[in-house]
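Reviewer 2 asked us to include a model.

Predict the structure of this chain.
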Amino acid sequence: MSYNNTKASYHGHGEPEPIGLEYLAGALARAGFGCVFIGTSRLDVLDDCGHAKLALFSSSTDQYPRVLLEGKEARRGGLTTVIGGYHASGSSEEVARGPFDYVVQGEGEEVVVAIAQSVFRGDSTALAAYPHSRIESTTVIRAPRLSDLDAQAWPARSEERLGTYVLYDLMWPPTSQQRNLAIVLGSRGCQYSCDFCASDTIWGRGVTKRSKENIVAELRDLKERFGTNTIVIIDQSFGQDREWTLDLCRAIRQADLGLSWYHQSNLTIERDVITAMADAGCTKIGFGLEGLSPSAVERIKSPNPASFDVINGLFDHCTSLGLFVKAYTIIGFPWETEDTVREYLHWLPQLRANQVKISYMTPFPGTRYWDLYRDQLISRNWEDFDTVRMPVVRNPHIPVARYHEIRESLFRTFYGSDNYTEGVRRMIANHPRLTASYQEFAGFLDYFKLIGENEPWLADVGYPHIKHPCPHTHH
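Predicted model (C-alpha cells):
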C-alpha cells in the first residue's frame, strides 16, 4: 500500500471535511444566499449574478499563515472578508490586525447571515444587535451561544469534499473500504475545562445537544445521498450524558443504516454505555490519557486521573467488543526531564490500547496554557502549532532534537512491546475481519517510520517485515 504524503499526515487523516464552513453554507443557503467553496478554508458568498462579494474563512492555529495569505488575496479582489474558527476565537486581537473586515468568535451561523444581509441587501439592523468591538478597521463580534441546534441547517455537503477525507488510522472499515467519510456533531461544547483546551473560548461553558431524531435524520441523509459508511463524531463530551447517549445509540441501532463510527470520550464513561455504542455501530473510541505515567497525569490536571489498572480494564472491555482503542497523550512539558522519559518508557508498554497518538504540549491562544507558557515559546510560527511537528515550549532539560528522538522511541516502544503483539493476536483471533485494518495500519506506520524492524505483530497480520532501519523523522 502506498501513502501520499501530500494527502496524509500522522494526524491520521487527509484534508478534513470543512465542517464549520459547511454549517455556515447551510445557514446561508436557507437564508437565500448562494455559496461556493474555495479549497477547505474559504467559502465565497455570491450575488444574484454569481459574483463573489463576501469571503468567509475558518482557521485552526496551524492553518492561520495560509489563511492569512488567502484573506489578503480576497481583500485585494475587493471582497468583504470574515474569519472565524478556533484561532480567530482565541487570538482575536492579532487576527483583527490582518486583512479581515470581521472577526467572529464562537458559533457563527446567525452572525454570518446577518453580515451577508448587510453586504448584499444593505440591511445592517440584525448585525447591530450582536455584541461587537472595533480593533483598528476590523469589527470583532462575539456570537451568542446557539440554544436550539435542531433549528440549525445541516452542513451543506458535497460528494467531492466528502470523498477527500479518509482515516488512515487503525479503523474499521479500513482506509480502502471507507466511503465518503463524514464528520458529525451531535453536541457542542464540553462539560470540562482543561487547561490545554480552548473549548470555553469557542463555545462557552457547558454542552448543547441535538435531539436523537435530528442526528439520525442527518445520518440517514448521508447514507442515502452519498453512500457514506464511516462517520467521525467530533463531540467533545460524547458519552458523558448517559441517558442521552443510550437513547441516541438505540435510535441509531433501530435505524439500521450500516454505518461505522468513531468518537473520542472520557475515561469516566460507563461500560454499559460502551456496549450500547458497539451495538449501534461504533468501531473505535479515542481516550484522552494526557500523560504517560501516573505522576505526569497528576501534574497535567486531567479531569479524570485513573490508575493504569482502571484504564486497562476499560480498554479491555472495548476490545472484547471488537472496538479499537486509541490513546491520546502529551509530551513536551517544560518540567520534563530524562528521568520523566524513563518513566514513560516503563508505563507505555503496559498500556492495552490499539493505537497511540503522542502530541507535543501546545499552548493554543485562548487556553490557560497560553497564559502560562506564552513567554516560554520557542516558536511563534503558527504552522508549528499542529502538535506533532515540534515542541513549541522551551524545556531547560531537553532540547528540541532530543524530543524528536524521545517521541520516536515512545512509538517504537509501544508498537514493539510484547503486550501490543498479544493484543493484536487477541483482536484478530476474536474478530478476524480486523486483520485488514491492521494490515493497512501497518503500511501507514511503515510509511511514517513509526515502527521498527521485524515487529512480531506484523507477521500475525501478514504484513511484510520491514527490512530497512528506520531513519530519523519528525512525523
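The chain has two domains: 19-142, 157-460. The CA atoms of residues 37 and 43 lie 5 Å apart. We have added this to the supplementary material.
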